Structure prediction request, 264 residues.
Amino acid sequence: MEALEHVDLWSSQVLVLALSATRIAVAFLLLPLFTQDTMPALVRNAVFLALAALSVALQPAVDVAHFHSVDWLRLFGKEVFIGAVIGVLFGAVLWAFDVAGQIIDMKTGASMAQVMDPLSGHQTPLTAALLSRLASMLFMSSGGFLLLVGLMLQSYALWPVGATLPPLKSGGMTLIEAEFGRVATLGLLISAPALVVLYIVEAAFGLINRYAQQLNVFALSSSIKVLASQALLILLLSTFAQLLVDDIASRPPIVLRSLKAMLR
Prediction:
């Protein structure tokens, strides 16, 4: 009889651990860092479970004896929602770098040459792959991973595993929409210097074509635009790196305020 009680206790703790790991897994999987191509599933799941075990140890004990199937579904849905919001709000700047690279490649005509990007898991142009990997490496090297872990633990203090999800405020979806707008805005701002240079190059080739019509301007402009955009990106790498580091450092309080505005 005592053995059965121990089994029941451990099974309850396993369910609580799985519940805690759901929020962490959803938040981290939305970042282009923990895909199947960049990290083995065993290592990735071990990281999620280790962080979940830490969160369970720091939270009040959860009495699951009176939980029914509907209660478990509601709690898992709450964890998925909070994890998704944290992942979107924290990882937006990483997506913005990928968007900026795609805009530049589309303007230079290099979008026809695509490679398999293991960070995003799909085909992407070369400049987009470069900026995406730059953003991911800076995220890890600048302490973004530790900031995200700290943010996850703070979210458990505000919304424990056993607590139900508060009513969603009417302006909650507006915050999510604004974040997607922020991704597009950041992507355009990051690519703006290269776009300006590319428009100048196109204007110059337009003048050349007017006075030297025997030249194949289209064939020349493609390679010149690629070289000009890549040279400018090399010059601006330090600026992009500082932009990313500053944005990552400012994210935790912004994400918490946004969650509080949505759920309180």
